Amino acid sequence: MDRYETFATWIFIVFGALIIGGLMAFAISTGDKPAFIFALAAACSAFFLGFAVIFDRPRLYGLILFVSFVLIAGSVTTIVT
Q1: Tens digits of per-residue pLDDT, 26-74?
Q2: What is the pLDDT of residue 28?
Q3: How many C-beta atoms lie closer than 10 Å to residue 27's C-beta?
Q4: What is the CA radius of gyration of the chain?
Q5: CA pseudo-torsion sign 46, 68, 11, 59
Q6: pTM to 2 decimal places
């Protein structure tokens, strides 16, 4: 694997699985459906971050990263309120 594929793999593992998976688990355990949907949408968008890195599309990477952060913020806000 070259450098980009390694970076994309770490994006899949760290960002998608650990952080967003923790949000989804917390939302399931508290029974907060909107927070779970926001976290699931963030996980789906974070999944596509790896493809943006592999295909060397930095603007698409930035856009998808921004969308993912907004969805994570929506999930956290839904949990807090």
Answers
A1: 999 999 999 999 998 988 888 888 788 788 888 998 898 899 889 989 9
A2: 92
A3: 21
A4: 13
A5: positive
A6: 0.77
Are the C-beta atoms of residues 42 and 72 closer than 8 Å to each other? yes
Q: How far apart are CA 39 and CA 60, in angstroms?
A: 20
Written in H, E and C, the secondary structure of the chain is CCHHHHHHHHHHHHHHHHHHHHHHHHHHHHCCHHHHHHHHHHHHHHHHHHHHHHCCCHHHHHHHHHHHHHHHHHHHHHHHC
Tell me if residue 57 falls in helix, strand or coil.
Answer: coil
Residue type, 2: D
Closest CA to 19 of 54, 65, 81: 65
